[in-house]
Prior knowledge:
Largest sheet: 8 strands, mixed
Strand order of the largest sheet: 4-11-10-9-8-5-6-7
Oligomer: single chain
Strand content: 5-15%
CATH superfamily of the largest domain: Type I PLP-dependent aspartate aminotransferase-like (Major domain)
Number of domains: 3
Amino acid sequence: MHLADSLATIRLSPPSGTPMFRQLYEGIKQSVLAGKIAPGAQLPPTRELARQLGISRQTVLNAYTHLMAEGYLSGTVGKGTFVSHTLPLAGTGTKAAEARPLRPLSVRGECFIGPQAVLNIHEGAPKAFRIGMPGLDVFPFEVWARLEARRWRRPPHELGYSDPIGYKPLREALSAYLGTARGVHCHPDQIVITSGSQQALFLIATLLLAPGDAAWVEDPGYRGISASLRAAEARVCPVPVDEEGLSLSFGKQAWPDAKLAYVTPSHQLPLGTTMSLARRLELLAWAKENRMWIVEDDYDSEYRYTGPPLASLHSQDKAGSVIYVGTLSKILFPGLRLGYIVLPPALVDAFVQARAIMDRHAAIVPQIVLADFITEGHFSRHIKRTREAYAERRLALLEAIGNELGAHLRPGAADAGLQLSTTFIARRDDSAAAQLARANGIEVRALSQFYLEDGMQAQEKRLSGLVLGFASIPVQDIRQAAPALRKVLDGR
């Protein structure tokens, strides 16, 4: 661009409130930094530029003076004013250049990107058959709002920087709840509050595994743990899941040196199976013998519809091998972003320091309100109420599968959780089926998406089907969506 044309593009606005010389100074500076005015270029004399822009000469003099003082311009009386030759400018800049980073990501940074690191998000209001989502329509928002408003009337002193381990009354309330409901007997100081269970898994992978360390993960299973392990540069070791849970015989043979095993024993994601007692005891014995950590992700164990919740794996651990991870996303709502880790005492200090480095601490007001929500009895009442609502919705989905979808889908284990896994009776491309369903306004997840692309199971042995959520969907919506899904699967 010609120098005169570049300067002519500078727009000055007297009504803006910013002094005119400051506007001119900023306009010339940005033109220089963007490469629109090249190093060594001579600027117009002050009178000429003042006339071009319709401003006073003193305004131009003041702008030039500031630019010279900061090193953008140089000049002497009688010779003119020039853009400094010594500016280390990068060039003109193009859209292609702007699309590239200044330099490549680090080796560690590359571990955070790619298809294996992509985690699903929810878009728009819940609709059939969204998975992993509790029913917002049954959450007592009016109670939550009242508890929060009460706290704001007398703002708590914790509104400053808080303890990274988490709000103490909340940890005390969770300790009491876990001991009663899940058999997880721990001191409040063993609980670290996190921004959801995903942050808990990232902390575990980062602090307990060195680059190259092997970690067993369920296949199919939760993609979030694989993403965290890859980000920590650990070796993700996919272990098949059978009707009893994680196949220990496979894991022992393929990766006997594993330092960590990630499991969802109470309700396997996505298949819904429960780890048998024999398999649990075998896993605990192997972990003790080989000094291997077990990460128990107990993400939705509160919701069991054919009997009381099963005991946690942590409650059966006598060697201190199990790290228990919990979340409030499935009981309350995901946007709350609160989870927790129950740690062996020897690990607490390290995790608290790492928690502080990562983001100081979780938002304190939600922690305070949640502590009140638990201690005043609202939490237990909410679990009871939602368990009844979700049981009704689960039954509606099972009936809809039998009445509308039975020619295509076979339901798997359905006695717990917020969703159920189905398999196709006649094998088909479940990703294509899920995509077609979404195009028709039906939200389902392909079962194949839960398998790791580089998993050890042969493609023909991997299950093909759909994962259907029911907890966030009213009964009437479930019954209306089932025929629409049938038409999609029929190819109509």
